[in-house]
Amino acid sequence: MDSVFNAVASLSDPFVIFLIIAGTGAGIIIGAMPGLGSVLAITLALPLTFVLAPQSSIILLLSLYCGSVYGGSLSAIAINTPGTPQSAATILDGYPMMMRGQGPQAMGWATVGSTLGGLLSAVILVVAAPLLARFGLEFGPIEYFALGIFSLTCVVAVSGEARLKGLIACLMGLLVATIGQDPLTGSVRMNFSSFELSAGVGLIPLLVGLFALSEVFWRISNRLDAASTNASIGFRLPALQDLLSRWKIILRSAVIGTGVGTLPGVGATAASMISYAEARRVSPNRENFGKGEPDGILASETSNNAVTSGALVPTLSLGIPGDPITAVMLGALTLQGVTPGPRLFTENPDLTTFIFTGLFAINIAMFALGALICPLFSRIIRVPEPLLLAAVVVLIAIGTYSVNFNPFDLGLLLVAGLAGFVMRLLGFPLAPVVIGFVLGDMIEQSLRQGMILTKGDFLGFLNSPIALTLFTLTVVFLLLPPALRFFRSRRAR
């Protein structure tokens, strides 16, 4: 209890409050800029950690982390461009709501979902951090492969009626993920004699090109102007009754995000896709998904912000970073003389309690700052259409180039944009490409490592209880919808 009082006293320090507000606000703005993302936000702040106390450094980095993950939803809703990869699922319903004249409501749902996801995952982190850390240790290559296959069921959810095209798009994403070095042997594959492709295709050029640049091409081809849309600006919180009626989706998405966050290397993008698919499966409004359904925004944003706390579980408890962002934070902790690991909770109880308590304060600050920033950010849609499209092209080009400062990424951006435009013309959904690409490396690497462990016997994968459970759920999720339709049609006849 003394550590709780000490944490509250530390958080009441005016300088710490300033760091929370400044870090969260800066994180939201950086996250809303396509191509920048959470890693850049935290990396830019690393030099400040050399002159700050350990608690101040940690609270600043956590504020930037949480704020940037939420900030990606703003551009996803306003201009159909996910500011961060974590918000890739948010555009599926956020942008249609914006175009339907419900932009303020979409911003409100994203803000509430992000805040509740962060708060609920913080509660789960406090209660179950040791248990979740031990559960994460149970995952080996075989379990990761089963999780990746289960995650591919998201394709069914985001493809709507075009499930065959969604499957083809997912296979395209898996194929693109194989470009570059072999994860086990190091040999180069499918680089088309290009040295730059030896390192593979970057997620940022692919993601921004598929969604943002293809949107620009699509608008130009249809000769849309600002007056032809119903887009509106502002910020409006959802009604309390509407929010309470969706408590199951909120809780389920928070649990999924926190659980996926504890698994090193999976990340918030996969978590948001899984939560989106699960929400579509159980939502009474499942037919509206992809057309501007608040349940989709709520599931995506609740989950990807819940990952922020979940990723801290292996980082603090085991010294294993849950994602690239917490890997940077792990380095910052080490620079401060803090050694994450099993002994951290017993040797530094004040620090761990401060982190847990700080997450609550950060998410509350994120809600307040989001309510202030959303109306300002969404005013960009008042800009005339030609100027807006030109600004979007410049913005995404700068954001993509700033990741690696490599002109080749701009070429990838253009190719991905043209590919996305052609896919739109042919009626192919874009989200399955991202799902396949994001999960491709994990599925391939874990499959091959698992085959080595089982000496080439794939049936040996079924000896793992976790993998067997995930395989069973995959089969159920794939076969249950057509089975239900079959029985309904027989009953109707």
Automatic annotation (TrEMBL):
Organism listed in the record: Salinicola lusitanus
A UniProt-annotated Pfam family: TctA
Residue ranges occupied by any DUF112 domain in the UniProt entry: 17-435
Bilayer-crossing regions: 15-46, 58-79, 106-132, 144-160, 197-218, 351-374, 386-404, 410-439, 460-480
Keywords: Membrane, Transmembrane, Transmembrane helix
Full protein name: Tripartite tricarboxylate transporter permease
